[in-house]
Every structure is written in C-alpha cells, then in structure tokens.
Amino acid sequence: MQVDVVLFAHFSGFQPDGKGGRHARAFELAEGTTIADVIAMIGLPDEPRVIFVNSRHAPEERELRQGDRLAIFPPVAGG
Amino acid sequence: MIAPDTLDLHPHRPDEVSVPIPDTALDPELRARLRGCTVAIIGCGGLGSNVAEMLVRSGVGRLTLVDFDVVDERNLNRQFFFRDQIGMPKVIALAENLQRIRSDVRLDLLQDRVTPENLLGVVRGACAIVEAVDDAGAKAMIVNTCLAEVPNVPLVTASGLAGYGSTNAIVTERMAENLYVVGDLTSDVRDGHPLFASRVMAAAAAQAHAVVRVLLGYPEP
Predict the structure, then answer these.
(1) Which of B14, B118, B154, B181 is the most buried (most CB within 10 A)?
(2) pTM of the predicted protein model
(3) pLDDT at B13
(4) CA B47 from centroid of its chain's CA atoms
(5) How far does B13 lie from chain A, in Å, by closest CA?
(6) Rounded to a whole number, what is the distance in Å from the CA of B111 to chain A's nearest CA?
C-alpha cells in the first residue's frame, strides 16, 4: 500500500531521500504497518511529537491504510 | 487549586456600568459573537499573558486562564505583568490586569499544571483553545489530547519564537483541520536562544489573531 508521509521542521531531515523539505513523500508499506513502525523505520529521535493522519490525531499504534497521509510535527520549547 | 467554573473572580453584573472598548468599525453581530465566546488559554507566560490581553481588547467575552507559576522578576522582559505583582500567582495577576482593560470580561482561573487528567475539564465549553506553555513535551501532550478528545474545537499552538531571527519567519499555518501552528517551527529556547519581547509578542499577536479570525468565521489563517 502507499502512504504519503510529511515531516515538519527538523524531522524533515529524516526523510529517506535525505533531501529534507516539508513536501510529502510516498512510502510503499506492507499491510498492517503502524505509525510506530514508520517512526522506527525512518529513525526519528525520541522527542515530543504531534501525529496526525488525514488531519486527525492518531495514536502511534494505529495501522495505516492505503492512501493515508501521515504527518509528524515536533513542537519546540519556548513560550 | 482554583477550579475553573468554581471561581469566577469578576462575574458580569448586568447592573454594573461597563465601558465597552470603542470599536465602531466592528459589526454589532460580530461583536456579539466575540462576546459570547470562551477561549481557554493554557499557560500565562510570554505567549499566554499577551494573547489574553489582545483577546480582551478584541472583545472576547470570557477566558479560562491556566498557569501553575507565580510572577518572577525575570518574566517582566516579555510578559504582561508589573513589578508590584512579583510573587503573585500569574493567573491572579493577569486577571487583575485584564480587569483594568475591560471590567466586564469573565475569567475562570486555574492555578495548576495542565495534565492529561485535568485538560478536558479546562477546555470544556471553549470556543477555541490557545496552547501557550513553554515545554515541548507539554505542548505535544496538549495538542495530541485536544486533537483526540475535542477535535472540533479550534486549537492554536505555538512553536518556534525564541531568538532574534526575523519576525517575518513567524507564520500561522493550518496544519490540520482544527490545528493552527504559529511560529518559525524551529527556534528552540533549549538551544540557548533568548526570548525577546518583540518576537514573543509577534507570535502572541499571531495566535490571538488566529483565534479572532476563527471565531469570526474565517478558518484560513
């Protein structure tokens, strides 16, 4: 199945093509792949993150589906 | 702890003479819409105290203010407090200052840290939520919890406002259906960037304006 993955801010440097940028990349994933699997696959650091699928919050254990758009955003400190 | 909905420091009294903010340009219907709204502001530091001031001046009728901390001398370079308020709980000091701007604003105060357990009680009934805490983990918790539990309530968060980079880098982005992110997304106070009043307030103004636009029916930033 194909899933679009968007990584914001410094997470974008973890896109597999190494080119950074916040545009979506198409990932070819096996059925049953979870968000946590994708995070492990691309090696995101263990930092606070906001995760949404198709513009709605999703827990890391959620299984992705064909055509999903996964976005991960790392908030930074300061306020 | 001061629980929201149990302490309304300054309830609106119909017989009280209140001086409305002069604003002849705003349509009475839109003014009434703002007056009828409650906005929950989580964190009353550099972002939250200034967001609260701007929303009160804009005519929002009711605010829920949440912060565990007390006013410190080091806050005065960017937060909406004064020297004679040092040592006061921030929510109390802020309520005092907001009342000086508009006597009819309704304020519900909680002097506590926001946790996954108390967050939903804090945002109950809010027309919009402002995330204005400083810790990245707390920001993520607030955003993830609100998106999961109250997905229909617009949430304005901030990320990336430290340092002396250009304010032109601070943008408002609609990152998901009801999630607005203000900031440059990258400048982290943990990297040693100082917090300047001018840049923090630029982010606070963008947050406040995103709230006003959403409340007036303009969902795009």
Answers:
(1) B181
(2) 0.90
(3) 44
(4) 7
(5) 34
(6) 17
